[in-house]
Amino acid sequence: MTPAKITAANEMNRSEFNDREVDTLIRRARPAIRRAMRRLKRPEARVGVIASPLGRLLVTEGPRGIANVHFLWSKSADRPLEMLRHRFDLIENENWRAALERELGRYFHGDCSVLDRRVDLTLVESEFQRRALGHLRSIPNGAVTTYQGLAAALGYPDAQRAIGNTMASNPVPLFVPCHRVIRSDGTIGNYGGGVDRKLMLLRGEGFRLKRDLKVPAEAVLGHRKTRIYCRPQCSAARRANPVNALIFADPAHARGAGLRACKLCNPG
Amino acid sequence: MADTEKVRIPPPFEEAMKSLEREIMRFILRSTADREDSLDLFQETWLRAYRAYPSLRSADGLRPWVFSIAANLCRNRARDRARRARVIAGGGLEGDIAERIHLSAGGSPDGMIGLKRDLQNLPGKQGRALRMRKIEGLEYTEIATALDCSAESARASVYQAMKKLKASR
């Protein structure tokens, strides 16, 4: 339809029911809509694309915290956006986006306190997964656990595959540090954003990983209950319950987490 | 892979609907010719559109999509009314379209009565397509989305409706 015809059609529309009459009816309809919307309204969430050294991230923060971080380099944003829009009314907010980008910039310069922001795990499907991701948040900066160790810590020592699936479907990577879970053989394992990114994150947190992607020789084993860290070869470390064991990048990180050196092996 | 892809986040629903409110209300008013029904149907259209909004990929398709919701609700309401054998205060919409078609063709006032009746007797899809095209000024592609058919089919419906009206005169 040509613009002239559209204008003619609009003219006819106006003459038929004038704007004032239509506006009056819309105003009359509003209170009922408002009442109904109180029941239906989805919570509002801020959303924005953040540039980071890892690549672009689509981040969503709901009223209860960060609800989703999506790696834009690995998959299209269409599906996560549709899923998020069913849960939240998404609002683009430039001030919030810029502030979060600055904060994440601090993380990539070594300030891990940024990741302590509140997270909203409502997008997580099962209770087991929620528990696993909740437990992950207690792993300090500069430390990793194993899939098996995490499964054992949740009371399911044979559920390492389920833990792997949980990490793969983690809706809030970075803020729930699934990159801090590695394989029991010491290799770093896979990552939703790509092994290169996991390597980059772990190196940024103090692990001097080489090409073989194995945990380096200077790494020490820490025990959360006894608050002691040892060399991996120490007899005390071998006797320790793996449920509470963590692998620290080096003695300095273990001391930073409040642990003391073992008096048997004297790891430094 | 998709790192350079532009992420298009649709605007919030209320913001997107603001520019369409008047059009939708007018469309419903014309379709029902009843102010109280229009209020009900406008509210229902709003709420249904809000519930289903997350499934709409892009805000570009919002206009025909909301029109299709409104058109479906109006049709259901008319069916419901007919089933209950209620008398609908009628003639408003058909009268207006009839007047436009009639006067643009330079017809006499006597011919209007017949034309109104003919408009009411048009099959549902043709009548709705004619209303969207002649009154709302929708594109054929938008009518096609609203009526869930192809653009060719929408064009054919409008053509057939006009042909029937002309033949009946």
In short:
The complex is a heterodimer of chains A (268) and B (169). In chain A, 40% of the residues lie in helices and 18% in strands. Chain A has 268 residues and is an alpha/beta fold.
Topology (elements, then pairings):
The complex is a heterodimer of chains A (268) and B (169).
Chain A: H1 3-16, H2 19-40, E1 44-52, E2 55-62, E3 65-71, H3 78-87, E4 89-92, H4 94-107, H5 127-136, E5 143-146, H6 147-153, H7 160-168, E6 181-182, H8 195-204, E7 220-223, E8 228-230, H9 235-239, E9 245-248, H10 251-256, E10 260-261
Parallel strand pairs in A: 1-4, 5-6, 8-10
Antiparallel strand pairs in A: 1-2, 2-3, 5-9, 7-8, 7-9
Helix pairs in contact in A: 6-7
Chain B: H1 13-18, H2 21-32, H3 35-52, H4 62-83, H5 92-104, H6 109-120, H7 124-136, H8 140-147, H9 151-168
Helix pairs in contact in B: 2-3, 2-4, 3-4, 4-8, 5-6, 6-9, 7-9, 8-9
Give a verbal description of the structure.
- The complex is a heterodimer of chains A (268) and B (169).
- With 268 residues, chain A is of the alpha/beta class.
- Chain A contains ten helices and ten strands.
- The longest helix of chain A has 22 residues, at 19-40.
- The radius of gyration of chain A is 25 Å and the shape is elongated.
- Chain B is mainly alpha-helical.
- Chain B folds into two domains: 10-90, Orthogonal Bundle (Rna Polymerase Sigma Factor, Chain: A); 91-169, Winged helix-like DNA-binding domain superfamily/Winged helix DNA-binding domain (Arc Repressor Mutant, subunit A, Orthogonal Bundle).
- Helices cover 72% and strands 0% of the residues of chain B.
- Chain B has helices at residues 13-18, 21-32, 35-52, 62-83, 92-104, 109-120, 124-136, 140-147, 151-168.
- In chain B, helix 3 packs across helix 4 (62-83), helix 6 packs across helix 9 (151-168) and helix 7 (124-136) packs across helix 9.
- The longest helix of chain B has 22 residues, at 62-83.
- The chains are: A alpha/beta (268), B mainly alpha (169).
- At the A-B interface, helix 1, helix 2, strand 2, helix 3 and strand 4 of A face helix 2, helix 3 and helix 7 of B.
